[in-house]
Amino acid sequence: MNRMLLAIKVVAMTTVAFSFSSLATPEFDECKLELRDQAKQSGVSHEVADKVFDKLVYQPRVIELDRSQPEFVQTFPNYFSKRVTDWRVEKGRQMYAEHKSLLDALNNKYGVPPHYLIAFWGLETNFGSYKGKMPVLDSLATLACDPRRSKFFTQELITAVKLLERESLEQDKMVGSWAGAMGHTQFMPSAYARYAIDGDNDGRVDLWESEQDALTSAANFLAELGWQPGFRWGREIQLPENFDYDLAGYSNRRTLSEWQELGIKQADGKPLGEGDVPAYIVVPAGYKGPAFIAYPNFRVIMRWNNSEFYAIAVGHLADRIIQGERLATALPELPTYSRDDIIALQTALNNAGFDVGKPDGIIGPATRKGIRAFQRQHKLIADGFPGLEVMKKAGVSIAKKAKS
After folding, report:
1. Nearest of 299, 266, 263, 305 to residue 280 by alpha carbon
2. d(CA 248, CA 156)
3. pLDDT by residue (tens digit) across 79-98?
4. Angstrom distance (rounded) from CA 320 to CA 328
5. Could you tell me the pTM of the whole model?
6. Where does the Transglycosylase SLT domain start and stop, copy by copy (predicted)?
7. How far apart are alpha carbons 256 and 244 in whole angstroms?
8. What does the alpha-carbon distance between residue 399 and residue 376 come to, in Å, rounded to a whole number?
């Protein structure tokens, strides 16, 4: 099967405005046969493989989403304010009370406190109210037949078909994200197969319909990822006025005692505390925004979703669910930057002698390092954040646009 031909047509789809599905059908059908044979060789019964792969339908929208890049750059205030809401806090408390007996038992067995499990559930699917609408097997097959990440999605597809057979799932009811994440906890098939647990003891694992299965599976997953019982995720902190922002970031881990010696305090001004727990500083919205200290469990959260924004949202939502305080430092008002704005800044930094690599519109470590050097040269607080002062001095004009 010539998957390269399919790839060429996939790319064409993103630049030519016409229906792609009819063009893709012959190549997709050929790819399905190859995938079906691989599934059989991996242990899927012939009967199930024939039935499942015969029903698979190419999903051009999946390729569009896989290729798309966001027009705007997500800022922490925008991300956080949409995810840690009063409604979600109150709903989280309700779900905690409703499932308290199960959650306490899971904490005893796996060492993951209830409020964290509820917070993950809230962020992943709004406590099960939105689990995605894309046909999972169709989506995975579409991605498996596309060379960009064919090997990964081929394995995920075959694993998903094995799950269908093992758990007596219905193909039409296996819906989720465009990339194949499923159920209350949005597990990929490989995570489902490896970590999902029958929490309600009905003899099967159903992450769509069983809240008990989903919560038990989340606890098992986090424990396997390395969750450290008895430790929190991190906390909001207060930085000293002369804080060197070059010390922020995962590569600058220090013990709790060392951070306290450097003047770091809790958000309310109380002492940070002493200990040999490794931690690092996260400043997601510049010096005007809140700052956080991240403990080892913060990185465990990021193994679920590799985003510091996500990990902060999970941790703070968990705190709020058990009557924790709101952020002590207000979220700053920030413009909605487009990717072109950031590319213009990166270009300006490169032209000024601050090498940030090829301009790509992504604010990564190299760009933050370049911004800090630029800020120091212009006697600004060197927090590595592209604030309006930085944009202005770099000569980048930000067009007014609606907030995303």
Report:
1. 299
2. 36
3. 999 999 999 999 999 999 99
4. 13
5. 0.90
6. 28-319
7. 17
8. 26
